[in-house]
C-alpha cells in the first residue's frame, strides 16, 4: 500500500504533459541563468562552462523552481483535501506518518528530476548557437555533482518539506505558494543589499539558499581558480 502511494503519485506526475513542459522550461532556465552568470563574473580566459558558473547557478536553483516546487508539492497532498478522499484513505490500514512520508518522497523525487533538467540546461549552454565566443573547456561533471549534493539536494529537500508542511498546517495549497513567495522575496532582498551593506555576514545568513556566499566566494577568485574547474 505504501509503495503504491509513492509509485502512483510519481506515475501520475510523469504521465502529465505539464511535467514535461516544465522540464523543458527548467532546461531553458539553466541555459539563460548560465549565460547571465557568466556575463556577471566574466574574466579574460575564464571558460564559458567553468565550474564557477555552475557553482553559483546550482546554489540559486532558479526562481522558476520555487514556483514549481510550490505547485507540485502542494498539490500532491491538497488533491486529497480538495476532493475529500483523505478521510477514506485514512480509514485504510495505512500509518498516517508513513502516508505523509510517501507523499513527500514522491514530490521530492519529481522536484529532483526537474532540478536535473536545470543542470542539463547548464551543460547545453556552451554548445548552442549564439553563445559567447569565450573558450569552452571540458564539462565540470565532478564539480557539478558535488554542487548538486552540497546545494541543490538540500535546498530541494528543505523547500519541498516546507511546502508540504504549510499545506498540512493550513489545509490550503495557497499556503505553499505564499511560503515560496516569501522565500523568493527574502532571496531577492538579500541579493539586493549584499553588495552595499556593512552587515555582510548577517545578510549572508539570511539568504535562504546560500546563493550570496557562493557569489561572494566566486567573485573573489582569480582566473586560475575559476578555470580550470574549481575543486572541492
Automatic annotation (TrEMBL):
Transmembrane parts of this sequence: 18-36, 56-77, 104-128, 148-170, 177-193, 199-224
UniProt keyword Ribonucleoprotein present: no
Superkingdom per UniProt: Bacteria
Keyword entries, A-Z: Membrane, Transmembrane, Transmembrane helix
Pfam family, one: ABC2_membrane_4
UniProt-recorded name of the protein: ABC transporter permease
Amino acid at each position: 500500500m505504501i509503495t503504491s502511494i509513492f509509485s502512483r503519485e510519481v506515475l501520475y506526475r510523469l504521465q502529465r504533459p505539464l511535467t514535461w513542459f516544465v522540464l523543458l522550461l527548467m532546461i531553458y532556465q539553466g541555459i539563460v541563468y548560465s549565460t547571465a552568470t557568466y556575463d556577471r563574473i566574466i574574466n579574460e580566459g575564464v571558460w564559458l562552462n567553468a565550474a564557477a558558473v555552475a557553482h553559483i547557478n546550482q546554489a540559486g536553483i532558479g526562481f522558476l523552481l520555487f514556483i514549481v516546487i510550490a505547485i507540485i508539492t502542494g498539490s500532491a497532498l491538497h488533491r486529497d483535501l480538495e476532493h475529500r478522499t483523505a478521510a477514506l484513505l485514512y480509514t485504510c490500514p495505512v500509518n498516517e506518518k508513513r502516508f505523509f512520508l510517501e507523499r513527500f518522497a514522491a514530490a521530492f523525487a519529481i522536484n529532483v528530476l526537474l532540478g536535473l533538467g536545470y543542470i542539463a540546461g547548464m551543460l547545453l549552454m556552451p554548445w548552442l548557437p549564439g553563445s559567447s565566443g569565450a573558450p569552452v573547456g571540458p564539462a565540470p561533471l565532478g564539480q557539478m555533482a558535488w554542487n548538486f549534493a552540497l546545494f541543490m539536494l538540500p535546498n530541494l529537500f528543505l523547500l519541498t518539506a516546507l511546502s508540504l508542511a504549510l499545506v498540512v498546517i493550513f489545509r490550503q495549497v495557497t499556503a505553499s505558494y505564499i511560503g515560496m513567495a516569501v522565500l523568493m522575496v527574502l532571496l531577492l532582498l538579500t541579493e539586493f543589499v549584499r553588495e552595499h551593506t556593512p552587515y555582510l555576514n548577517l545578510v549572508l545568513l539570511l539568504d535562504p539558499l546560500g546563493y550570496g556566499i557562493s557569489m561572494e566566494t566566486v567573485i573573489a577568485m582569480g582566473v586560475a581558480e575559476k578555470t580550470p574547474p574549481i575543486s572541492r
